[in-house]
């Protein structure tokens, strides 16, 4: 390996795919130009850039919320200055795989809320659908504009030790993180001026324009009034809500800013009521309409579902899309692709065990040290059991909980997440990463932003990349 001080202590993990080094300890071709820059840059200068990045994040107010931290809930988003670099060839496969997956998932959601052929043909058990907390009976038989249920999605990918990308989960309800992707790129431009164009890095900056156009084109009105509905300042992604609304030039509203009258949705303004045509909502289904879901909710709008069913307002993403990103449904996505599209999946699933099946529960119990167990409705890295880290008592308690409601849990083998170089304590060190590309589906098809959010497990040896669990992020460069 290179003897530059930055690289001297780079301890490549065994049996792990490293994004920068190949198995012969040579730099991968996509990293060569950036490595040349690093070789000619002192650790002190990189530390200065790292400090500048922190100041820029602080001044921009780029934060996230940690609900279980006693020091305070607002945290500056951790950022590693060394980019994750992906070749054009690798990205082409990712892009094709996500488009294929979203096409099948969208057809699945439409089918589930209409004819339910996939259940009748025995591909997916009906009890799995009807017991899912994200299945909305209120959406049964509702025709959505252009038959698009999933307009905005973030598909989580990991690269395993074989170098292949696998889908970890599908985020189809109110996926977050795109504002961090945009901010990471702006920071990179400040830190490394000239290097991005020299490397032929594809732009992500036009995401807000793409998103606004997709939202606008959903409506038959020439100049529709588009708003972003936020739960408010205490939501963990509120920074993202304000950023996207500002960049798109649309109003950021809360539930009490809207009112339904004669089955139309209006926004309260100083000049009276103004009709709203498209709502990009960041409010979960349960809180969207107190007349149909949680009666105590003050985050949504009373009567909005009735207006939606009558076709008087477009809601993005459509209510009920959560049925397709439940972790128990995830297991069947490859079957959906074959069933609806007649194709083999381009991106593979991770081997997943259904703990409601006694044989699979027994297998997972016997191999618990090699497994991660997750709640089917869990998110944010909370509520998981990492078998290789847990004590015997923690495992016993967790399995006791699983056995009370086994259909609420799935298990997967603990994976060897790929590692990427991070600038830590003045040197480069490998840390585990994943990738969340963002896809936009509209009347003109699916567009995938060339990059996405690379999340990093900043704690040495950790596999958990969630910011709320000690993770951070880095810029993702997709080469032309």
Automatic annotation (TrEMBL):
What's the superkingdom here?
Bacteria
Instruction: List, alphabetically, the InterPro entries matched.
Output: ATP-dep_Glu-Cys_Ligase-2, CP_ATPgrasp_2, UCP005522
Circularly permuted ATP-grasp type domain: residues covered: 83-457
Among PANTHER family, the record links this protein to: BLR5612 PROTEIN, SLL1039 PROTEIN
Q: Under what name is this protein listed? A: Circularly permuted type 2 ATP-grasp protein
Q: Which organism is it from?
A: Aestuariibaculum marinum
């Amino acid at each position: 390996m290179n003897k530059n001080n930055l690289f001297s202590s780079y301890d490549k993990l065994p049996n792990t795919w490293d994004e920068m080094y190949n198995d012969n300890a040579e730099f991968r071709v996509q990293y060569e130009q950036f490595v040349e820059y690093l070789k000619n840059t002192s650790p002190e200068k990189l530390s200065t850039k790292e400090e500048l990045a922190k100041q820029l994040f602080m001044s921009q107010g780029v934060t996230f919320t940690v609900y279980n931290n006693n020091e305070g809930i607002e945290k500056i988003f951790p950022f590693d200055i060394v980019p994750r670099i992906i070749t054009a060839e690798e990205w082409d496969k990712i892009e094709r795989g996500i488009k294929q997956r979203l096409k099948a998932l969208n057809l699945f959601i439409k089918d589930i809320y209409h004819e339910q052929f996939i259940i009748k043909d025995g591909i997916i058990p009906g009890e799995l659908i009807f017991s899912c907390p994200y299945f909305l009976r209120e959406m049964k038989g509702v025709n959505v504009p252009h038959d698009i249920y999933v307009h905005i999605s973030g598909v989580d990918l990991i690269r395993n030790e074989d170098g292949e990308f696998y889908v970890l989960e599908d985020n189809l309800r109110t996926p977050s993180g795109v504002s961090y992707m945009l901010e990471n790129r702006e920071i990179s431009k400040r830190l490394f001026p000239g290097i991005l164009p020299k490397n032929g890095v594809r732009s992500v900056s036009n995401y807000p324009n793409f998103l606004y156009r997709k939202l606008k084109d959903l409506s038959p009105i020439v100049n529709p009034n588009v708003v972003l509905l936020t739960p408010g300042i205490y939501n963990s992604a509120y920074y993202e809500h304000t950023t996207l609304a500002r960049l798109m030039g649309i109003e950021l509203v809360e539930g009490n800013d809207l009112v339904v009258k004669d089955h139309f949705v209006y926004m309260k303004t100083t000049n009276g009521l103004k009709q709203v045509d498209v709502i990009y909502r960041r409010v979960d289904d349960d809180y969207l309409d107190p007349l149909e879901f949680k009666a105590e909710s003050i985050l949504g709008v009373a009567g909005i579902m009735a207006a939606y069913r009558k076709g008087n307002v477009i809601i993005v993403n459509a209510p009920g899309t959560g049925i397709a990103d439940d972790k128990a449904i995830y297991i069947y996505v490859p079957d959906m692709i074959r069933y609806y599209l007649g194709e083999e999946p381009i991106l593979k699933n991770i081997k997943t065990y259904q703990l409601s099946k006694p044989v699979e529960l027994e297998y997972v119990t016997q191999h618990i040290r090699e497994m991660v167990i997750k709640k089917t409705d869990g998110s944010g890295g909370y509520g998981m059991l990492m078998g290789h880290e847990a004590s015997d008592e923690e495992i016993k308690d967790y399995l006791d909980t699983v056995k009370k409601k086994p259909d609420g849990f799935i298990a997967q083998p603990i994976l060897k997440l790929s590692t990427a170089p991070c600038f830590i304590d003045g040197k480069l060190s490998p840390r585990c990463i994943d990738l969340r590309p963002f896809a936009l589906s509209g009347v003109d098809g699916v567009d995938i932003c060339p990059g996405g959010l690379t999340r990093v497990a900043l704690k040495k040896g950790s596999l958990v990349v969630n910011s709320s669990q000690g993770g951070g992020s880095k810029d993702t460069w997709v080469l032309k």
